[in-house]
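mind reviewing both lines:
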Amino acid sequence: MRPLRQLTAALITGTCLSVAAIAPPALAQGLFEPLIKVNGQAITRYELEQRARLLGLLRAPAEPNRLAREQLIEDRLKLEAANLQGIVLSEEELADGMEQFAARGNLTGEQMIQLLERGGVDEETFREFVRAGLTWREVTRVRFGARISVSEEDLERARNAIGSETGVRVLLSEIIIPVTPETQEEVMATATRISELDSVSAFAAEARRFSATATRDQGGQMPWTPITRLPAGLRPLLLGLAPGEVTDPLPLDGAVALFQLRDIEEIDVVQPEYSAIEYAAYYIDGGRSEAALARAAQIDADTDTCDDLYGIAQGQPAAVLERGTKAPSEIPQDIAIVLSRLDPGEVDYTMTRANGQTLVLLMMCGRAEVIAEDPGTPAAAPQAAETAEGEEGGETVELAPDETAQLSAQIANQRMESFSDGYLEQLRSEARIIEY
């Protein structure tokens, strides 16, 4: 959520009343009917309206109604995971979290509550919004904290990456193993074993045996890939590897991914960052059945651009084809990983949805590059690089101790975010979500 400096101006003035306060009894009763159930937990019309109103007042960078639905579903999953781990916030922790959130807009917690209430948002809505975020942070800390470490080698690679006027590209091998609730334990055991390999040939053998990607026949080997094409959460994980090392298993939606770093090098041309990526997804019933895979192969042969998919989908329900443009941070990690290796017009059909019952054919439509405000400065230069001093020729940048700590924290946070996003995608793929 962006800073709240303009919160007061965004809120409606004191004449506003909450929806529940002005609704007649019949309408008020309808507000509390369940519209969605997540593993049996209800989300009411009132909650959706309140969250959407809160997001609108906070100037959330997405359509409030759609984002409210997504957030509340995720909140149910996050709190359920917390309950299973015995994690419960105290009232003091929740109050501190509300104060910290309000402080982003130079407000106290009480001032924040009063302003939101004037905009029609109940205090309880704000409390639950903060509770979900704080609880999930604790869940991921407990679950993954022991696996997050930043070595001097990690810092050295990051310094080289941010202090060079050249670009960075990586040579990777991949394994993506489909997973269903029935096979999850077996797949995770296999993935954990593979993650301990340090041999390129051994990893290639496992890719030929288990991977569902188009690269399996090549031992999972991918071509040189600019680091900027990869999801932001994956980059620090790769930069933290030495050649031959493998990432920990990365939970995706319906799959588990592993990447082996075969090589890394600097190149003379700085690779662009991307502000938006346009792609299309065509859904095929049958999962990874022979018929579904044959259908995907035929579509691949019959299409050259994303526009061609409209002809493929003609006469079918609108839901079978989705096409849109999203910021890289908004794209689910499993989709972002697949798109990173595609050029415009290329397709991939290794992913599934609906617990493996639906095959997803992805096509890359195009990428929009970030335009730097200052032509002499890379648009996406990390904050730590702003004050870094180095010599010409791409040598390592020497950072002050506080800047080194900042860089270390950035790498650790990105790794934690990657684990967190993957875990949430796993919970969502396994959840029973019913909409009325």
Q: What stands out?
A: The chain has a mean pLDDT of 80. The first strand starts at residue 34 and ends at 38.
